[in-house]
Design brief:
The protein is 46% helix and 17% strand. With 353 residues, the chain is α/β, with parallel strands linked by helices.
């Protein structure tokens, strides 16, 4: 769908939760205040930081009246901090922007234009370009013409369940405040997959849009937020995502979502088995692969008797005998990496893969 220019000038509230990210706050807040075509308010919620975050936030608030600071006297955790900020917004649209991330130039106007054209859309996201402190954010992407994709909420949930994936990193997501008021904030029962559950819950009631083309946000890669590439972390991620998808059954019309949940469980179990197999094909240990096998069965009991599980079991036995990956295993992993590149390119272009 061809993108349309923004005609109005909505107020966008940007909640910036912060814990010990004082060194990043000026960049995050600056990326919001510099947004053209929209009015903005920035709500920094400091969760009892022990660094200079509060002093930095106070200085930013003094420098620009669009910035205000909420200070927690005791640490409440990230979900409570998110919800505290979200409960204070006064705008038409809202973004939850981590203090270590940034919005891309023009991102809010591009998202707001889609909301303006389609009142049924409750969530808009886009491409979030990763960057590191050394690489620089603006240099990470090239300027591209924007175009839109719009799905019914049911269609978007079906795609997410089919892959068992969370298609949204987070800083690129913009929510219609009316949608936030209707569905509520983050679920404190899901601290590790609350974002995915929030997107799914929103999509259950609203359409979902995406701004394709230019980056909508910049996601900072650093030791404090990186998903460490260890299989026990991957196994935990599988379990947490399963909990988020299962939350669909807590919504009204529970039976309607049950087939979707079962599809997500099968996708997650398949992913767990594949990760275990890939680790072995790369020369990893049998114990790590068994961890993934266990998480697959935890998510979907039927996975234990699948062909993929039997192949993985044979590979584990081979690894336990200290045998190196065969030529076939190494070739299979090379092919998988090529498919990974295709899927990543597709996700970057259209937001699903």
């Amino acid at each position: 769908m061809k993108a349309q220019p923004l005609k109005g000038r909505p107020l966008v509230s940007v909640v910036v939760p912060c814990y010990n990210y004082g060194r990043y706050l000026p960049d995050a807040v600056g990326s919001v205040l510099d947004q053209p075509g929209v009015d903005v308010e920035v709500i920094i919620v400091d969760d009892a930081s022990t660094d200079d975050s509060v002093s930095v936030a106070r200085r930013l608030a003094v420098q620009d009246p669009r910035v205000r600071l909420i200070e927690h006297q005791v640490n409440r955790g990230h979900v409570a901090t998110y919800n505290d900020g979200l409960s204070r917004v006064t705008g038409d649209l809202v973004v939850l922007l981590s203090a270590d991330d940034m919005l891309a130039p023009g991102a809010l106007a591009r998202a707001a234009a889609l909301f303006e054209v389609d009142p049924e859309v409750g969530l808009v996201y886009g491409y979030a370009a990763e960057f590191s402190d050394s690489s620089g954010a603006v240099a990470a992407v090239r300027r591209r013409r924007a175009w839109w994709s719009v799905w019914s909420g049911k269609e978007w949930i079906a795609l997410s369940c089919w892959r068992g994936r969370n298609f949204i990193l987070s800083p690129e997501a913009v929510i219609r405040v009316k949608a936030l008021e209707a569905v509520g904030g983050y679920n404190p029962a899901l601290p590790h997959s609350g974002d995915l559950e929030f997107w799914l819950r929103t999509a259950a009631h609203w359409s979902v849009g995406r701004v394709n083309g230019p980056a909508q946000a910049f996601y900072r890669i650093h030791p404090g937020n990186m998903h460490i590439a260890l299989l026990d972390s991957a196994a935990a991620d599988i379990i947490h995502r399963a909990a988020a998808f299962r939350s669909l059954q807590n919504l009204s019309e529970r039976g309607h979502w049950t087939p979707y949940v079962h599809r997500a469980e099968r996708a997650l179990a398949r992913e767990a088995l594949l990760v275990g197999q890939r680790r072995l094909d790369e020369g990893g240990g049998a114990l790590e692969a068994r961890t993934m096998m266990s998480s697959a069965v935890d998510v979907s009991a039927a996975a234990g008797g699948s062909l993929r599980a039997r192949i993985l079991e044979r590979s584990i036995t081979r690894a336990e005998q200290d045998l190196r990956p065969s030529d076939i295993q190494r070739a299979a992993e090379w092919i998988r990496r090529q498919f990974d590149r295709v899927r990543w390119t597709l996700w970057k272009m259209v937001g699903v893969s």
